[in-house]
From TrEMBL:
This is Glucanase. GO terms for cellular component: extracellular region. It comes from Roridomyces roridus. The active site is at D231 (proton donor), D410 (proton acceptor). GO terms for molecular function: cellulose binding; hydrolase activity, hydrolyzing O-glycosyl compounds. Substrate binds at W144, D146, H277, W280, N316, W376, K404, E408. InterPro entries: Beta_cellobiohydrolase, Beta_cellobiohydrolase_sf, CBD, CBD_sf, Glyco_hydro_6_CS. It is an enzyme of class 3 (hydrolase). Residues 18-54 form the CBM1 domain. Residues 60-99 are annotated as: Disordered. PROSITE patterns: CBM1_1, CBM1_2, GLYCOSYL_HYDROL_F6_2. Residues 1-18 form the signal peptide. Keywords: Carbohydrate metabolism, Cellulose degradation, Disulfide bond, Glycosidase, Hydrolase, Polysaccharide degradation, Signal. Its EC number is 3.2.1.-.
Length: 455
């Protein structure tokens, strides 16, 4: 016994001093492991629950990654983004351009994701896989503004997109996800956010929206496409039996309404409200309740003209059009996104809700990989899917998009994390997985090798 203790004492210092490998965790609430990284990597703050050893080459993602936890600001902060544009842009019209907002525009590539991909590729030794991995940096994804600390990045992005639009002569789209509701992710744990309803969450959220608006205002020449609050309204359709969701209902509606009204005033932000996916709101019993919620929210918000439609399958794995139904979809005639969209569309007409859609296919390349349709966390064996395009062949679908930046994690598999969700520990969930939103190297490599169409 004593010798065992002595042996333990002998190895303990080495253990405590051990440095984290590239991509491993190196800090966060409750973390007791290594807090420094091997040479070539730096321990970088991601969120209060997670710091990660990112390769030094480029910090693993953007230049604005804070090294300290962001504090919630109680008032608008001074924008760090540019505040003026050199040549006067044509002013935005308060009436949206008719038709598909993607038409005639180029989607600007976010440098944050490109940096994540470059850092990841640098750690892939197989030359063919590395080249394929690098090509992902050229595929546009959305940027998730999942904390208020990230909002100033938007001004920088827009300034660059504006400059590119002028130099290339092709107007640019910057794609963003508005994602910071108080009591966020009310039916799950993995993506719980920084604001809580009990602690001034609604005011904090309004401030978050005001800051987004302030960043966008100087750049009327850039078109912004925004997905509004993944999962929030869908949770209000099916998860009001979860106390956190029923408690959040009024606040979610007030916050989403505020978001779409304020962004609508800008005149260059085209919005798609998140509408879950075929395996969620696409069940026949959920379709009408979902449509009723979208219709009433839209009407009560004053039918904002820049709400263009709905976003489906965000961060999920469903096919747009499945060759044959995945067996797990049994019992739902809407077994893919196209069936879901076609079933939902007629139900939206009563309020004049615009029946246009964008569909995430970023991780939908491989089908029939889930044990249950409800499995959403880092599903094993997923591959990158159909490339973003506005040439969808379906009138109702404005664009196929990549909304979830592939390689960013859905949620941690660490059961002792405050944000552990059991879905991330299921046998069809890839493990070990870091915290939501942080880089998951092994998952990224699989997305690359299993991409369909191939990269
Ligand atoms: C996470 C966010 C992250 C987003 C995109 C979500 O699941 O909660 O933090 O930004 O995915 O990766």
């Amino acid at each position: 016994m004593l010798s065992a203790v002595l042996a333990l004492a002998a190895i303990l210092p080495a253990f405590v001093n051990a440095q984290g490998a590239v991509w491993s965790q190196c800090g966060g609430t409750g973390w007791t492991g290594a807090t420094t990284c091997v040479s070539g990597a730096t321990c970088t703050f991601s969120n209060p629950f997670y710091s990660q050893c990112l390769p030094n080459s480029n910090g693993g993602g953007g230049t604005t990654t804070p090294t300290n936890p962001p504090t919630t600001s109680s008032g608008p902060t001074t924008s760090t983004g540019p505040t003026s544009v050199s040549s006067a842009p044509s002013g935005p019209s308060q009436t949206p351009a008719a038709g598909n907002p993607y038409a005639g525009h180029n989607i600007w590539l976010t440098p944050f994701y490109a940096a994540e991909v470059a850092a990841a590729a640098a750690n892939i030794s197989d030359a063919t896989t590395k080249a394929k991995a690098l090509s992902v940096a050229k595929i546009p994804t959305f940027t998730w503004f999942d904390t208020i600390a990230k909002v100033p990045d938007l001004g920088t992005y827009l300034a660059n997109a504006s400059a590119l639009g002028k130099s290339s002569g092709t107007p640019q789209i910057v794609q963003i996800i508005v994602y910071d509701l108080p009591d966020r992710d009310c039916a799950a744990a993995a993506s719980n956010g920084e604001f809580s309803i009990a602690n001034g969450g609604q005011a904090n959220y309004f401030n978050y929206i005001d800051q987004l608006v302030a960043q966008i205002k100087p750049f009327p020449d850039v078109r912004v496409v925004a997905i509004i609050e993944p999962d929030s309204l869908a949770n209000l359709v099916t998860n009001l039996s979860v106390q956190k969701c029923s408690n959040a209902q009024t606040t979610y509606l007030a916050c989403v309404t505020y978001a779409i009204q304020q962004l609508n005033k800008l005149g260059n932000v085209y919005m798609y409200l998140d509408a879950g996916h075929a395996g969620w709101l696409g069940w026949p019993a959920n379709l009408q309740p979902a449509a009723t919620l979208f219709n009433s929210l839209f009407k009560n918000a004053g039918s904002p003209s820049f709400v263009r439609g709905l976003a489906t399958n965000v961060a999920n794995y469903n096919a747009l059009s499945a060759a044959t139904p995945d067996p797990i979809t049994q019992g739902n005639s809407n077994y893919d996104e196209i069936h879901y969209i076609n079933a939902l569309t007629p139900l939206l007409s009563s309020s004049g809700f615009p029946p246009h859609f964008i569909v995430d296919q970023g991780r939908s390349g491989v089908q029939n990989i889930r044990q249950q349709w409800g499995d959403w966390c880092n599903v094993k064996g997923a591959g990158f899917g159909t490339r973003p395009t506005s040439n969808t062949g379906v009138t109702a679908i404005d664009a196929i998009v990549w909304a979830k930046p592939g390689g960013e994690c859905d949620g941690t598999s660490n059961t002792s994390s405050a944000r552990f969700d059991f879905h991330c520990g299921l046998s069809d969930a890839d493990q070990p997985a870091p915290e939501a939103g942080t880089w998951f190297q092994e998952y990224f490599t699989t997305l690359v090798t299993k991409a369909n169409p191939a990269l």
